[in-house]
Design a protein that fits this description.
By secondary structure, the protein is an alpha/beta fold. It is built from seven helices and eight strands, in the order αβααβαβββαβαβαβ.
Amino acid sequence: MLLPSSILWNFIIFFIFKVKFAESVTSEVSGISKLVNSIERMEDKRLERLISRYNCEHFYVDMGTNIGVQIRKVYQAEKYPGALALPVFDQYFGAGRRCNVCSIGFEPNPSHRAHLYALQERFNNAGIGVLIFFGAANTHTGVLKYGTKSKKVDKKQDWGGSVVQASNSKLGQSYFRSVRSIDVARIIRTLDSNLRNQRRGSRVSSKIVMKSDIEGSEFTVFPHLLFTNTICSIDFLFAEW
């Protein structure tokens, strides 16, 4: 049976539209994939520069670094007597100046960027490897919405800033900005691989210590570390819960 010409033409138009739409989606996905790969290569290059320049025998990973106080405790313990993190650093990194410890910070709040740039440069100039990623430690490479109570930094340096949308009403967030999302598991795997290469496959004497203070994102980041088996590369993890 022959189809009426109007139905046939409608079918042809629909088929062409479907093919063009599929091509458009494929092209868009390909473009996003290339962008993600480009960003991750940039992250890798920053890590490579850090590792090649400094004697990184251990790594401290600071998720939610805020203004960098926790990183300062690694190298300037005398300024923070009684801090709960100090015994952990002594146990895993040893006492002293710890110039063989490299620190990786993650901070999404743009308001802290200038301060953290200065902190990073100050330590780097002193021969200490500190690298700050200006983005949220998360499960993927991309973009997230970051919320604070206001555009102006509060007296507690925006401790409640978060990318967890379910927490916005509880935290009183009313000001939002788009920030980078960084796959923290991928970064940890890179650090672990580097330490193993240095020690010909063994990591007995090299440690990775992580702090997490990411305002509820732990509920997605921690499962991500588990499911990717990255949690096994971390020697000690402590968190604000």
